[in-house]
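Hey L., structure's done. Input below.
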Amino acid sequence: AAGGRVVTPYFPLPNRLRRVDMRFTTNEIELKNTQIRSGVSSLELTGRIGNLRRALSGRGVLEVDMEIESDTLNFNELARAAMAGAAYGEKSEQYRQSQQLIEEGSGMADADSAGSPLIVIPSNIDLHVGLCVRYGRYSTLVLHSLSGDLIARDRCVQLKDLQAKTNAGDMSL
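Output:
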């Protein structure tokens, strides 16, 4: 598709899609150079999400292998939208019921995460995301370049080869 829009109160930002190049089956979604603009952030996604049937039935691991390139990424704006969407969702009984089903199917219901500010990684996620950001904002930090890999597996997160040039200096993690 040449383009599209996603409008949802669960992520209240203008979301536009361009150059949507997607192949999907009942078990896999593959994206090629699909562009997403969410608020002021712009992303280009290439990769796949696999093993959907088994993961959604609670008998398998959701496999995500994605490369994300971004000219502009405003973490502040994206986080505010996610929090506003979560606040909206907490008011919806259907949303609460679906979240409970997701937590039970992913093993998160066992985790003591009520009221915790931590991010809980579901046990049925195998995620590898390569990230390359040319310009970004996080709080008052200005990122002039950010690259690295995010790996999530077995309820653990690993930041691999994370490097950034910022207005506060260069960093490598």
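The helical segments are 52-56, 75-90, 93-106. The radius of gyration is 17 Å.

-- N.
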